[in-house]
Write a structure and sequence with these properties.
Length: 440
Amino acid sequence: MKILFVYPSSVTYGSYKYKSNLWGKILLSYNSPPYLDFQMLYLTTPEKHTIEYISEDFNEIDYEEKYDLVGISCGTKNAIRAYEIADEFRNRNTKVVLGGWHPSILPNEAKQHADSVVVGEAEETWPKLLKDLENNKLKPIYRQEKPVDLSKLPIRKGSVLKRKGFFSYVQTSRGCPNKCKFCCITNTEHWRVYRKRPIDDIIEELQEVPQKFIHLADPSSTLDINYTKELFKRMKDLNKRFSCNANVNVLGKDEEIIKLARDAGCLHFQCGFESIREMNLDEFCSKAKKREDNAKTIKKVHDHGVEIYGNFVFGFDYDTKSIFNDTLNEIYDWGLNLANFSILTPFPGTPLYTTLKNEGRVFDEDWSKYDLHHVVFQPKNMTPEELLHGTEQAYRDYFSVSSSLKRMSRSFKVGFYPFVFLSAANYFLYRCMKKYREFQ
Ligand code: B12
Ligand code: SF4
């Protein structure tokens, strides 16, 4: 069979189409390898089938080309665009399968636009689906019965799906049991179950993946600290540079993990600080996110030559109009050199969504706005406009020339590689935000 994988653009929606400038396209195409979802599907597809891959951010879809099957992956943000593409293909009598986070959470919605929907992980269901299609017995829904055993995951050899990119994603674990109320991972049946890949498999994959720069696409690399320590020890001689997600309070308590990460090539930890307000953390986050002495932890990480990239969310129930300035002041004091700000987003399937929906506070269910940059609910202590404009102002202040230069010079003291990462990420986040605003 001839199969097409499509990753729909997240900012293409109807006639509303994002066109990057030439430099942006070159940079992004060099920068963006195929995501792991399609890499995994590719590896679990029997060799007799041929596969093409299109990421709509870089290539136009040719609807006139004949395929036996089109597989589309999407999160909530690009679900509507995914449905548009699915409808176009189905109008031409091409079979369409939808999978990924959003179709897994709302399979009945997705089914209206697809011949079949794959719910959850697909390493086991995808080969079954292909066989059923060959036998003309395609089922409407394929559901993974129990969490996939990660020791059975295929090991990637080199770059798959042709596009290379200068960095690559590698997954070492799946799942997180922590139960933060806004998080999709912990609130979906299988994804919540924490599982680890055998370290031998990861090392083999890292040796085979040609890219030097890797992002470990795990919910958190600090859920099983002994496992991660062992992994970092084994990664030491691979000469890779990498980043990973980590819980800041674990880093604060265990200096050895920072040292082992640095020796293994870690450039930065990405940490969800979420909020500077203790009451928000208590109400919306798991205990794993309890506020500790962040300034001390950040200094410790910097002293080992590693950067920290912090994520913050605005719009929690205990946020008032002062949250924006308070956050900026506090993170300057902590010595955090790079941060990103999101607007609280009630993704379907999460307890946050259910609560806000029951309270009548969700006023927009246009999924394309579920991108962490739009306000889709009524905040408790602000108007939606105040939340939006406050977040924008925080971005403008944080990424102003003077603030950026100050943070970059501080980062230079952390180390050369972390400084290069920080400067590039600072520029990228600033540009993204500016470009993004043009479409609102
Ligand atoms: C790496 C990552 C990114 C990367 C790469 C994105 C990607 N699509 O892989 C980047 C940085 C670009 C990114 C961006 C964003 N991300 Co992100 N990201 C992740 C992360 C950490 C890992 C994803 C991954 O590689 N998983 C490994 C692969 C193998 O698993 P998988 O993607 O689930 O795919 C499996 C199944 O879903 C299924 N499947 C998937 N697609 C398809 C398609 C078909 C046809 C079939 C049959 C099966 C199938 O099969 C796969 C194998 O089992 C996840 C959290 C996590 N740990 O999973 C968040 C996560 C996916 N991201 C999330 C979010 C919110 C975002 C952003 C909106 C953030 C932002 N403000 O920009 C954007 C949206 C990007 C977009 N275009 O929509 C949410 C998604 C929630 C949702 N309901 O949509 C997650 C779950 C994080 C969370 N805590 O909630 N992200
Ligand atoms: S710790 Fe991170 S991955 Fe785990 S539930 Fe909370 S936000 Fe989700």
